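Researcher: Structure prediction, please.
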Amino acid sequence: MKVALLLDPGIEVIDSNSCGGTERAFLLFLDFLYKERIDRKSFSAAKVKSGKKYIINKLFYPTWLKEIGEKLIDRSHHDPLLWKIGSYIKVLAELPYCLLFIMKSIDCDVLVSFNVPLVSLLSPRRTILRIGYPAGYVFFPLQRMLKSRYQQTYFYFVSKNLCTKFIKNHPHLSPNRHEVIHNGIDTALFQPKKEMNRVRHKQHLTFLYASNWNKRKGIFMLLKAARVLEEKGLKFKLLLAGGPDLWSNIDVRRKAKKISERVYREAKRLKNTEIVGKKNYRSLPKLYHAANFVVFPSIWREPFGFTIIEAMSCATPVIAFKKGASPEIIKNNKTGYLISDVNTKGLIRAIQNLIQNETLSHIRQMGQAAREEASHKYSLQTWERSVKKLLEKRLKDQ
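Model: Predicted structure follows.
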């Protein structure tokens, strides 16, 4: 078997030390193919900062054309025609990228496309389309006219929530070719610290935010909640990790400076908040160990969330909104807490309740349950077995 991988061309930098979920999943897939000694090729439009370990071929991608499409989509609001025009312009930008991929992968048995449906139209019988973005972020061109080609493709979703939404929005796609394969992590790297060393920070709880700095990930909502809780005289510690540029594309780079300045400005006004910034991937477990809870206040339709399972694997319970895939991962009051009210007030109430009423014994109990859940469901070994079965199924059905 020979496998070719194609990354979403909107991602412009791949850095194994600090990257978003899609890039992380792409690199994990490459690691898996290497470990299994499966012949492989990989392609992207990104600049690679991951050292010599990963050989990722760069393909031409007209970014300027994609930007035109994105501007139209941004302006469309509730205008479906303008949205569709913008989406098709983005498809035109993807066309040379995908054609080059198909040409350079002519000797490969299976093609795995990360969020690029156009590959399904060009080579449907060889393709596995990995969907890691919510419906509306992945556009299927000519889906009614060429539905028979999409029906030959295998679809691999990172969560049940994502799969359910896609089936609802795309009923013409074959339900027999849908697979849900949760992301996996190295549970040997993300493992618990000895409980005797996990204590309250100066007799109060420590909360950690470890994600991208932007509005939809909820960092500004969390900062507002921290300010209100501080004004109430509650004792706690908030650590802010990550940065505004963990997702690397042109739109993010334009906003990164303003976002960073805003986060530093708001955090500076808070006595109990400390910015720890971006951390090397392999040092993340120490960060999770430093907290009693990880706060994951994402307000968008979160497709999965590596942060959640990394924290759980380190026996650190997670607090998240009951939205997207979070309820699929977190068992309320067992491995963490789910907040029903997706707003600042809901977040304030949840954190305040923990500060005032939570006990260390219950935190330890939840942490142990979270670790067991992560080890059982989200280990690399579990993910690798599922992916291997999917590759074999795709190879047989050609």
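Model: Residues 80-104 form the longest helix (25 residues).
Researcher: Thanks, that helps.
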